[in-house]
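Q: For a teaching session next week I want to show students how multiple molecules come together into a single three-dimensional assembly. I've collected the sequence lines for a complex. Could you give me the predicted structure tokens for the whole thing so I can convert them for display?
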Amino acid sequence: MDKAYISARNVRKVYNPGKPDEMVALHDISVDIPRGGMTILKGPSGSGKTSLLSAIACMSRPTEGRILIEGRDVVKLPERFLTDVRRSTFGFVFQQFHLIRNLSVRDNILLPLYPTAVMPSAMKKKSVEIMARFSLAGKENLKVKNLSGGEQQRVAIARALINDPKVIVADEPTAHLDRKLAAEFMDMLTSLCAEGGP
Amino acid sequence: MIKHLKIIDYALTSLGRRKYKSLAIITAFTVVVSALASILLFSRALQTEAAYILDSAPDLIVQRTVGGRHDLIPLEYSEKIKKIPGIGTVSERYWGYYYDPLTRANYTILGTDGNETPLELLEGRLPAAAGECAVGAGVAAIKRTGAGGELILVDSSNTGVLYEVVGVFRADSSLLTNDLILLPNEVVVDFFGYPPGMATDVAVQVYNKNELQTAAAKVKRLLPDSRPITKAEIVRTYEMVFNWRSGMMMTVFSAAVIAFCILAWDKATGISADEKQEIGILKAIGWDTSEVLALKFWEGLIISLTSFLLGTLAGYLHIFVFNAFLLAPVIKGWSVVFPDFHLTPHLDPYLVFTLAFLTVTPYVASTVIPAWKAAITDPETIMRG
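A: Of course. Below is the structure for the complete assembly, covering every listed component.
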């Protein structure tokens, strides 16, 4: 494996600092995430896994410490540049899927591409390809609230991949899936890794 | 460019998936805008009508008052007025209001000496002989007559008199001629039973318009029982009656403004948990704060612009096609508008811009500002709730 693609250095995350409900979620965490592999974070509930993933994926800024992506510290980047990093680097699969429930399958998948210069025809082509890949063909116009848990999971993965991200961040992706679907999902991630990333 | 088009496309999709809520907002907003537009268009149309009337109005009208009541004016008064330095033409006017119980409408009967009038004739000519009359379009419609037709009026001796309609008036201002019946001067005198040597009032033109107040004061000094009314005073009267700032119009206008403020305030103070979470999702998957704000801007603009256009159209139709049927009763006490009247269609760009500015801008702001508060927060914080 190559040297670390993402590094967290002495990361500390405090929610509501200085308030009565202050909570330290991360305390002096350092971790390296190598390129081209699958890294799994394990820990009990409330141990700060989601907080660390959010910090690593530029969804929140740590209170202290550094996050390096390809050696570049992103913590102090202005919001606009941080968004660029988030958009070009990461695809997210959330524990709760975080799909827009009354939006169609196709629109949910295409959401990351709306604020980009990708032409609508190219967007359509990509959506057709990715829906076929995740067995969602024929369901593009269904609202996601009408899909099963497994189908929603696939929509969430398709949305994470539509931007051709370098890193997929998945936060407890199998928590809401039965054993069979969880196994399918892990197979999917494994095959993506084997392909050398999306 | 393509990015913004796609954001607009998403804004439309976004509104479409909340179609009942969006439709409810558009409906409520349209009603408020149409009320505002109706009032503004109505008052502006009436002001325009008044301006047309005043264009052809004399500089000074001299009436005689007896015990504070308007009474007929002796013709020798006009001879005395003519001799005042600075006074131009002086002409006696013969006119009066006529109530027609059959049509339950008030008409204005006005005398003419057969000279050219500033009013345009739609068809026919001015009355030249006894037994002839010209009428306004409103009178022609309500009495179901026209050029070549007949009109029966009951005179002061309670005798029905048949007149031949020789002309039907058209003026830039329909309010000006709508309720008008024009008869030769001597016929008007007989019709109302005026004593000889008396007129209704005297119209005066002054050479130097800046000296109008001085001329009025001179008339008052010379004829203590007279009441000179300047054009400026007429303008003030019209403004008091027609201006949107006054009375009932102000009440209706205020109610519409308050309704709009409640709508905007409700929007500005509340952003639902679903909307907050959606903003968090958009940011988490790579939308920038400015892109989220652009989305909310377009959503607000689509709703408010649609409502503004529909509301303005509804207001225009209400005032100019359906004859302001909801607002006309407010000024029905103004006798000259007793017959059905049609206001001259007129859309002032300044008024439209003002209406757009007062309705679209606050609504868009009330959509964007709460979204901005959510959009500048870390997506993780929003999604954690």
